Amino acid sequence: MLSDLYPSRKGTEPQILLRHDPVVYTDLQDGLVLTREQKEDFDRNGFLVLTNFFSDIEIRLLQRELEDLRLKSENIRQHREVISEPQSGDIRSIFRIHKNSRVFEKLSRDARLVNVARDILADDVYIHQSRLNYKPGFEGREFYWHSDFETWHVEDGLPNMRAISISVTLTENTPQNGALMMIPSSHRDFISCVGETPEEHYKESLKKQEYGVPDHHSLEYLANKGGIEQVTGPAGTVVIFDSNIMHGSNGNITPYSRSNAFFVYNSVQNRIRAPFGSLSPRPEFIAARKEIEIVMPEENALLSSSAQNWQQASRRTAG
Amino acid sequence: MLSDLYPSRKGTEPQILLRHDPVVYTDLQDGLVLTREQKEDFDRNGFLVLTNFFSDIEIRLLQRELEDLRLKSENIRQHREVISEPQSGDIRSIFRIHKNSRVFEKLSRDARLVNVARDILADDVYIHQSRLNYKPGFEGREFYWHSDFETWHVEDGLPNMRAISISVTLTENTPQNGALMMIPSSHRDFISCVGETPEEHYKESLKKQEYGVPDHHSLEYLANKGGIEQVTGPAGTVVIFDSNIMHGSNGNITPYSRSNAFFVYNSVQNRIRAPFGSLSPRPEFIAARKEIEIVMPEENALLSSSAQNWQQASRRTAG
User: Fold this and answer.
1) Which of B145, B228, B251 is the closest to A251 by Cβ?
2) Which helix or strand (DSSP H or E) is residue B146 part of?
3) For strand B143-147 and strand A125-133, is the pairing parallel, antiparallel, or unpaired?
4) CB-based contact (8 Å) between B144 and chain A?
């Protein structure tokens, strides 16, 4: 069995452990998409924000699909890929959008995103997880501080920190409506959490995290060292972040939803194994175990999907 | 019986009613403390933020008292003036600080605050309510949108909008740690809420508001019209706001507490009567009914309290 480089939820005391993995796996030179400076920023802070990435047409296309999927999901609420807000019952997340939506499938293959992942991970990549996070207005709940890697490692068996997340904002993200908060440079430490994880924990944890929660003392240490940065921007802002960066977000009591699409690209050499927390594996829609497909970068993928849709639409109209 | 200008929690449909009361009761001319421009700002937006109000010594004095009271309150948790966070049990608020703390009593009499109240209300004033809000780090809970006046009217019998609130920040208030959010100009509309109020509601409402909650549609109307402004600033920032402005705040998952002192000055002509919601009156520590004492402005009140404390301290040391 592979040794566990990042033990968590095993001891009775929290621990701050060193990261054993690189952050940027390629040389710190200009890459396919990212410049040397951008790679250095990512290496240092653990995240990178890119604006003016998409055209207005592309953003409108994504927003329309966001709304279409929400309306469709209202009718398939009991489907396990659809997660509701615990109190209001509003749609909170939809999983596996790279399979369930033609538009988001195309987005996941878009060369601009895939090549960012390849620029950082220096490998072929596949989608480990994808989702839409709606965070509806008035009653959107907070996400408490967490490292995604901690969960993916313990609950899914992701061995190493060789995965990155790309989030595309689909509404304006403001300081008021629960924009993502990052602790810069926190990706260099691994916070080993206390407490065992119950079986089928994921059914609750997608609504509210109760295990794999970092302790106050470690969070204070990270925040005092790195500060707290909130990622705000108009719809279409792209946020790239390391799998181990400590992040969270406030709730949303404003009338304005804070919606994002979220893709996790994992190196094909970093495929998941038996979960390190000795649990039964979580379902495929949360952590791809069998459905592994290398994502090849496709130029203008998003617009091609849109063009096809429009052609179909005009054919239907003409017919 | 006085007619109810602002009915709320009586009907089955929310309503947006006009404000019948002035906002600034004096002429829009330079006043005791406020300039003409500041009065105009307050009149238009319903709130005003003043920085560089206190000296560093004064701020440190207030912060020390904040921490002393928190530590003392840990031991008198069962006291009804001490409110805890529902989940963590941390101290959330302490009421009646203008009676329970020499330092905050002095602050409440400080000419700079009292004369702001007199500048706006054009009358002698007394303290209707005072409190410390701690909003501790990691687990500070949100305050959902509300108009203070709505509650004070329905639950306490405050007849008119002739009271103002003054909040003094005692830690840095940032966009991340749950700073106050205001809807500018919302003080011009009164949102009549639905639903009756159960008896002794205050015991729960100080932790989490469930009645007198404005509806989504009215909030959207107000926010689309006035926007949402977050009030941030270093410790010692003074926020003056109208009793009817719609405001709220996010939770606080950062390690840094967001603490404020809060005083409500009411015009002596606007003393509370029987609650308009036909409930038993709330206790004196939440709404002063008998303990009415005109607050006369005192120059350098805060520093004089500090000087006295220091004299006492040195006497003790010397003795």
Assistant:
1) B251
2) strand B143-147
3) unpaired
4) yes
Residue A36 per-residue DSSP state: H
Q: Would an 8 Å CB–CB cutoff place B87 in contact with chain A?
A: no
Other CB atoms within a 10 A radius of the CB of residue B231 amount to: 19
Instruction: Look up the CATH architecture of domain B15-318.
Output: Sandwich (2.60)
Local confidence pLDDT in tens for the 319 residues of chain A: 568 999 999 888 999 999 999 999 999 999 999 999 999 999 999 999 999 889 999 999 999 999 999 988 877 666 788 988 777 778 889 999 999 999 999 999 999 999 999 999 999 999 999 999 998 899 888 899 999 999 999 999 999 999 999 999 999 999 999 999 999 999 999 999 997 776 666 666 665 666 789 999 999 999 999 999 999 999 999 999 999 999 999 999 999 999 999 999 999 999 999 998 877 889 999 999 998 999 999 998 888 765 555 445 444 444 3
d(CA B268, CA B275): 17
Give the integer Cα–Cα distance in Å for A290 and B263. 61
Q: What is the DSSP string of B89-144?
A: --EEEEE-HHHH-HHHHHHHHBHHHHHHHHHHH-S-EEEEEEEEE---TTTBPPEE
Rounded Cα gap, residues A226 and B109, in angstroms: 41
- Nearest to residue B42, comparing CAs of B243, B220, B225, B259? B243
CB spacing of A251 vs B250 below 8 angstroms? yes
- CA A314 to each of CA A78, A270, A308, B21, B213: distance values in angstroms, whole numbers, following the listed order: 34, 44, 10, 58, 47
Could you give the angle at the alpha carbon of B236 between the alpha carbons of B91 and B207, nearest 5°?
Answer: 25
Q: Where are the domains of chain B?
A: 15-318
Q: Contact B255/A216, CB-based, under 8 Å?
A: yes
Q: Is B168 helix (H, G, I), strand (E, B) or coil?
A: strand
Q: Which of residues 185-224 of A touch B (CB under 8 A)?
A: 216, 219-220, 223-224
The verdict on a CB contact (< 8 Å) between B223 and A144 is: no
User: Which tokens go with A79?
Assistant: 């489907």
- Cβ contact, residue pair B142, A223, below 8 Å: no
A94: closest CA among A260, A287, A302, A317?
A260
